[in-house]
Write a structure and sequence with these properties.
alpha/beta, Rossmann fold, Alpha-Beta Plaits, four-stranded antiparallel sheet, 11 helices, 37% helix, 27% strand, globular, binds adenosine-5'-triphosphate, ATP-binding, ATP hydrolysis activity, AAA+_ATPase, ABC_transporter-like_ATP-bd, P-loop_NTPase
C-alpha cells in the first residue's frame, strides 16, 4: 500500500506540496487529479524517492522510503508519461533487457517476459520491433516493462494520454486485473472523465494541497452534497408526488419526461431506501430508482469552485 503523511516538498522559492496525506490500499486504483502546477508530479517523484521531501512520511508496502530507500524501490515501479523506448529492439528483447537489469536469472526471463506481455495483452507483438508499435501499443509495452519486477505498488503518470478509446478500454481492463491481484496503483491524469472508469478512489490536488480524497462515491457525495434521485415509474405519478413531498430528504420533484422524475435529495442511502419502500408501499409501480452519477469532470470543477479543505 501507499501511505503518505504530512508530505511537504519545497523547491528553492516554491512550496510545491504542502502537508499532503494520502492512503491507497492493496487492490485500489487511485487517481491523483489536479490542474497544471498542482504538485502531482512533485508528489509522485517524492513518493518514488526521486526528490528529497522537506519533511513527511512515505511508506510503500510497509517499507519506509526515507529510511530504507533501496528496499522501498524494490516494491515500487513507475511509468512516466513519455518514457524512452528502444525502437531497434524487438518487444521481447526490450523486456528481456529490463528483466536482466532487475537481475532476474537468464532461465527465468522468458517466463517473466511472457507473463508481463500476457498481462497487458501484447503477446502477439512479442517478435515485432518496438518501432512498429502504435502509440497505444507502446504504452502497453511500457506497462509490461513496468510490471517486470512484479511490483506491489505502481505509479503511472498520465498512462492514457494519446491512447485511443479502444486502448483506454484495454488499459481499464489491465488496471482492473492488476487491482484484482492486490497491486496498489496510483495514476496521475488530466483526463478526468476516464478516471471515473479506471479508479476506485480519487485524490484531488490544487496548488500543492490535497483538496479532497476518498472513494469515488464518497468524494462525489462530499463534494456534490445533495444528489439527484432519478425515479422512473410505470404508473402512479400523483401518488409519487405525494410520497416524495412528504419525505424530509427531498426538496422538490420534477417530471423530466412522461415516466421519469428527478428529486433533489439530501438524504443518505438509508433514507433513500426508505423512500423507495414508501413508494412501493403506496402502490407506485417503480421501474427504476437511483442516484444520478456525476462524472469526475463535474466533481473537479465543483472542488475548484468550493475550495474544500
Ligand atoms: N524543478 C523545479 N524547480 C522549481 N519549481 C518547480 C520545479 N518543478 C516544479 N516546480 C513548481 O512546483 C509546482 C508543482 O509542479 P508539478 O510539476 O509538481 O505540478 P503538476 O501537478 O505535476 O503539473 P502538470 O500537470 O503541469 O505536470 C509548480 O508551481 C511548478 O512550477
Amino acid at each position: 500500500m501507499i501511505h503518505v503523511k504530512d508530505l511537504r516538498v519545497d523547491y528553492d522559492t516554491v512550496c510545491a506540496v504542502h502537508d499532503l496525506s494520502l492512503e491507497v490500499g492493496p487492490g485500489e486504483v487511485c487517481g491523483l487529479i489536479g490542474p497544471n502546477g498542482a504538485g502531482k508530479t512533485t508528489a509522485m517523484r517524492a513518493i518514488l524517492g526521486l526528490i528529497e521531501p522537506t519533511y513527511g512520511q512515505i511508506d510503500l508496502a510497509g517499507v519506509d522510503m526515507r529510511e530504507r530507500p533501496r528496499d522501498a524501490c524494490k516494491v515500487v515501479a513507475f511509468m512516466p508519461d513519455f518514457p524512452p523506448m528502444y525502437d531497434d529492439l524487438k518487444v521481447w528483447e526490450f523486456l528481456d533487457l529490463f528483466a536482466n537489469s532487475y537481475f532476474i536469472p537468464r532461465k527465468e526471463r522468458p517466463g517473466v517476459v511472457d507473463r508481463s506481455l500476457e498481462l497487458v495483452g501484447l503477446m502477439e507483438k512479442k517478435d515485432e520491433f518496438v518501432a512498429t508499435l502504435s502509440r497505444g501499443m507502446r504504452q502497453r509495452a511500457m506497462l509490461a516493462k513496468t510490471l517486470i519486477p512484479d511490483p506491489k505498488v505502481l505509479l503511472l503518470d498520465e498512462p492514457s494520454s494519446g491512447v485511443d478509446p479502444r486502448g483506454r478500454i484495454d488499459l481499464k481492463n489491465i488496471l482492473r486485473r492488476l487491482a484484482s491481484e492486490g497491486k496498489t496503483v496510483l495514476i496521475s491524469s488530466h483526463i478526468l472523465a476516464e478516471m471515473t472508469e479506471f479508479c476506485t478512489s480519487v485524490a484531488i490536488m490544487e496548488r500543492g494541497r490535497m483538496v479532497v480524497s476518498g472513494t469515488v462515491d464518497a468524494v462525489r457525495d462530499r463534494v456534490l452534497g445533495a444528489g439527484v434521485l432519478v425515479i422512473e415509474v410505470l404508473d402512479g405519478a400523483d401518488e409519487l408526488r405525494r410520497v416524495v413531498e412528504a419525505d424530509p430528504g427531498a426538496s422538490g420533484v420534477e417530471r423530466v419526461n412522461g415516466r421519469t422524475f428527478e428529486v433533489p435529495y439530501h438524504g443518505d442511502a438509508e433514507q433513500a431506501a426508505g423512500l423507495l419502500a414508501s413508494l412501493v408501499g403506496s402502490g407506485v409501480r417503480v421501474a427504476s430508482f437511483g442516484r444520478r452519477k456525476e462524472g469526475l469532470e463535474e466533481l473537479f470543477l465543483k472542488v475548484g469552485a468550493k475550495e474544500l479543505s
